[in-house]
Amino acid sequence: MEWYRDFPHIGYNLDGKKIYKPIRNKDELDDFLDKMDNPDYWRTVPDKQTGSDVVLSDEQVQLVNRLQRGQFGDANFNEYEPQVEFFSRDVMLHPVTNRPADKRSFIPSLIEKEKVSKLVHAIKMGWIKPRRVEDDSRGRYYDLWANEDSSILARHKMHLPAPKIPLPGHQESYNPPPEYLFTDEERALWEQQDPCDRKLPFVPRKFSSLRQVPAFSRFIHERFERCLDLYLCPRQRKMRVNVNPEDLIPKLPKPKDLQPFPTTQSLVYRGHSGLVRSISVSPSGQWLASGSDDGSVRFWEVCSSRCLKTVQVGGAVKSVAWNPNPSVCLLAVALDSVVLILSPSLADRQVVLSSERLLSAPQEADANEGAGPVTWSETEGEELNHGIRLKIQHPKAVQQVSWHAKGDYVASVMPDHSSNLQVLIHQLSRRRSQNPFRKNKGLVQCVSFHPVRPYFFVGTQRSVRIYNLVKQEMTKKLQANSKWISSMAVHPGGDHVICGSYDCRLSWFDLDLSTKPYKMLRHHKKAVRGVAYHRLYPLFASASDDGTVIVCHGTVYNDLLQNPLIVPVKVLRGHEITHDLGVLDVTFHPTQPWVFSSGADATIRLFT
Amino acid sequence: MGGLQKKKYERGSATNYITRNKARKKLQLSLPDFRRLCILKGIYPHEPKHKKKVNKGSTAPRTFYLLKDIRFLLHEPIVGKFREYKVFVRKLKKAYGKTEWSSVERLKENKPAYKLDHIIKERYPSFIDALRDIDDALCMCFLFSTFARTGKCHVQTIQLCRRLTVEWMNYVIASRALKKVQLHTHPTDVDYRVMATFTEFYTTLLGFINFRLYHSLNLLYPPKLDVKAESELKEENDDDYAMNSESYLEKLSALSASLARVVSTAEEDEAELDQFPVDGEDMANMEAREKEQKQEEAQKKLFEGLKFFLNREVPRESLAFLIRCFGGEVSWDKSVCIGSTYEVKDETITHQIVDRPNIDKQYINRYYIQPQWVYDCVNAKIILPVEDYFLGVTLPPHLSPFVEEKDGDYVPPEKLKIMALQRGEKPAHEQEDEEEEEEEDEEEEEEEEEDDNEEEGDDGEEAEEKNLKKMEEQRSQVKVTAGKVKVENPARLEQEEKAEEKRLAIMMMKKKEKYLYDKIMFGKKRKVREANKLAAKRKAHDDAEKSKKKARK
């Protein structure tokens, strides 16, 4: 019939005419209505052969029901008729068939034999295992640790037991104390963070009763992660540093036992209007000279903080240095490109006279004058009245002046990168200048004479070079391990040097020990501007831009095997920080354990 | 120079480690098998100290195992079983392909199986070692016992897990060993094979541990209910469960009946600690220990004499477990679970645990309390006052018993309250409100006082100004006045001196030590900051509550 599926007819009659399908234009709705109205609907069946609907009769319905129940179609058929037994266990007199028995019923089967032999072979070869006895020992437990013998050694020493999962804290409670719940900000922060950055892997929640607590949905995940950690996570032994922080602090002698050292601010010298770049104390310890950016040099009486004398020099003073020779009274002042020699006449007549004599020493051998880069000139008039005696004109701006211990030589520094003309040494008595170096590597920052021996220290940006002036050769080069040296001081014994640097460090060199610093002190927060040794006491001080002066105790032993003892004893504060500059210079009193400091706040302070 | 040239990476740490792939090849195992072996044997990767050296100069990310571990695995009999299993699967596939059903059957009968007993003995040579790792095993088994018995995992595994956990809980009840309990909450792609392997191991471990623990208490293993209890239970509902074994497990898991013992005289006397004559420092230790022990004893009998009834909305198993652990009697509605011992109507019930705002029919002679009371009592080791836990009351916070506060840490006020109760101080609960009011009054008074002080301060300033004026007047005529002696507090001075000494010493620290010191101090400061933050939060919360209360008034 499916051949006619797409055609309007369902076959042909004897005349060869098409037999058309009955017209069926029922839709679902009609079908439904039919179902409702027609009482015979349930027994109406479409006939595929004719395409028309057939209403089943009662007999037909009954037949269908019987077949569906698996009964015989014929209602009258009796399926339980008594059985007639043709064959019984009783041996009859006459056989049913008289056929002789087959041969194969007498001889064993070859095929079976083959099969058996195959099995036997397979068993022999171990291909087939005999049926295993049901082993129920799995899941049956016994006392495994009955005879614990310690002879079974524990794991090798590299074994690292897995760390335990931390136990839940207050936050994880279903009803935590209110302080453990997140505020809105904390919650927002928590949501923003990466899951790995979060401190807690969950948000603490509060439920008013146990009934409302949902199932722990992450339980499987948590256990799974734990499993992964156990077998997949590489383990490493980390030594947790379990030290008492107090033990880390070095045991130093108490500052109390290392007295005397300056402890309190006792005097403030006011008068300058610009920042005070440099200060210097007279060898007698009675006078203090200071040079400032306001273009003046002032002389103070140390004990009374009174300004005795002000000399206007007409330019920002970079450096002042008092002649260390106690028999003369002279001050070297560096400003712009000039070094001035002042005779402040603040001493005995004798001393003043001797310094006059030194300055007015006979001029001789002017042969090389003019040829040199430096011109010496005497002052006249107003300047002379102020005490300015000599002017040494340099070709470049002078940064620093430094006296020799004897008081005849003065060295001046003109920083200029890699120029051969950076350091000049002037001899006062002969009014002569000389350039000790043919070439100068780097930018010279500061120079200093050795207090006893004929050595000359030149501090460049990264290192300190020590020259022997007699042999005219370099003896040592100290590596400061800092970026930029700012200042340098030589121990009165001459075997130790300290260097301050702009990268907040103070390095102590022991010249006998090494060219590397014996100790680096990083106790300043900002650039170190000035360092100084005390002449008599084992003290040194450093001044920094953070507004502090740190006084340290530094004992140097005569025994070469014993290293110097360095103990910070006092942090002195007092200077105000102006324009990011704190304390600019520091110097000790020659005889007392006092320290002077000059700062950017235009004051000089004395700490005793 | 003579001698052989040393080759790189032929000695030292490079020879102690082996990459995972190499190890796998050495053992001739597939990756899943290797994984299973590692899980069962407890072999884990190591992070070498110098990874680049071990990695022969390469920086590729690789996992390293100790060569020793892998060599140790080579001798493992289970590796052979794994290979056998592989062969078995291959044969089975082939037989299926050829539709040789008889050989399929034969193969299935001879499926290779392995036992883990020797591995457990090897990984945990002593019982104590095994107990140390029991937490993971318990968690895993409890998890698996909650799984639905469909798909994913074998039903047998789930049943075994359930059995073992029930056994474990019964043991804990019998030994009354529970100390602390906490309820916690916080809200897939999971490889069930890995978990199944772990569970395989853990079930074996837990089984052996249970066996040993039961025997240490003279209990029968596998557990049997007490004869008396058993007969009682049998009468009630034997018909409801088709399978006898299942019903027995259910009865066990009801946790309501005690277990049968090997020796019928169940009451064994506690072995008392022998008293040795000791002197001096040990004495104090001994006393402390004795005290602790007494406390423990008291805790074990926490709920003794109390009779609980669980309403149907509360978590039955957990509460029944807890109450039984501490010696209480417990029952529930018959329809909730098998094993209920008495009805709601029982007049002797002292506490009924309810987790709903109110209840219709209330008996007079019992407390109706919320379930948190039980947990909090257990943690506090005392019977807490029931007032805070009545129906419809806002519950006090539930604290974790695992947090041990050191000095300086933040302690929630609730904990302080409980600690006070533990010390035997009377609960200052009812007087609180009055006290609060009093406090407020005091505060007000204080404020007034402060105002006074400020006024005084103003007075002082005025006086100073006057002084200054006087001084100015005096300045014209220079005059030295007698200075006042500054009163210095010697203790404070000394303290300051010490602090400065410390500051100076810190300046002299070496860079490395300074770094460490700074780190430690940073950690300490952070701790303090966190504690302060919590305290501040709490204070803000309490203030808000108070103001709310006031507003309501």
Automatic annotation (TrEMBL), chain A:
Any one Gene Ontology BP term: maturation of 5.8S rRNA from tricistronic rRNA transcript (SSU-rRNA, 5.8S rRNA, LSU-rRNA)
Classification via HAMAP family:
BOP1
Q: Which SUPFAM superfamilies match?
A: WD40 repeat-like
Question: What exactly does this protein do?
Answer: Component of the PeBoW complex, which is required for maturation of 28S and 5.8S ribosomal RNAs and formation of the 60S ribosome.
Keyword hit for Lipoprotein: no
- WD repeat ranges? 269-310, 576-608
Protein name listed in UniProt: Ribosome biogenesis protein BOP1
Q: How does it assemble?
A: Component of the PeBoW complex, composed of BOP1, PES1 and WDR12. Within the PeBoW complex BOP1 interacts directly with PES1 and WDR12. The PeBoW complex also associates with the 66S pre-ribosome.
Q: Which UniProt keywords apply?
A: Nucleus, Repeat, Ribosome biogenesis, rRNA processing, WD repeat
Q: What is its main location?
A: nucleus
Matches recorded under SMART domains: BOP1NT, WD40
Where would you find this protein in the cell?
Nucleus, Nucleolus; Nucleus, Nucleoplasm
A Pfam family reported for this protein in Swiss-Prot or TrEMBL? WD40
Automatic annotation (TrEMBL), chain B:
One GO cellular component term, please give it. Answer: nucleoplasm
- Which Pfam families does the record match to this protein? BRCT_2, Pescadillo_N
Q: Give the source's domain of life in one word.
A: Eukaryota
Domain called BRCT: residue spans: 298-391
| Region described as Disordered: spans on this chain | 422-498, 528-553
MF GO annotations: ribonucleoprotein complex binding; RNA binding
Keyword terms: Coiled coil, Nucleus, Ribosome biogenesis, rRNA processing
- Which PROSITE patterns does the protein's record reference? BRCT (PS50172)
Where is this chain compositionally biased, Acidic residues type?
431-464
Q: Where is the composition biased (Basic and acidic residues)?
A: 465-476, 485-498
GO BP term, pick one: maturation of 5.8S rRNA from tricistronic rRNA transcript (SSU-rRNA, 5.8S rRNA, LSU-rRNA)
- Give the signal peptide as a residue range, or say none if absent: none
Tell me, in one coarse class, where this protein mainly resides. nucleus
Q: Where in the cell is it found?
A: Nucleus, Nucleolus; Nucleus, Nucleoplasm
Q: Whom does it interact with, and what assembly results?
A: Component of the PeBoW complex, composed of BOP1, PES1 and WDR12. Within the PeBoW complex BOP1 interacts directly with PES1 and WDR12. The PeBoW complex also associates with the 66S pre-ribosome.
Please explain the role this protein plays, according to its UniProt record: Component of the PeBoW complex, which is required for maturation of 28S and 5.8S ribosomal RNAs and formation of the 60S ribosome.
- Which PANTHER family does the record match to this protein? PESCADILLO - RELATED, PESCADILLO HOMOLOG
Q: Member of which family? A: Belongs to the pescadillo family.
Q: What is the protein named? A: Pescadillo homolog
Whose protein is this, by species? Sander lucioperca
Which gene does this sequence derive from?
pes
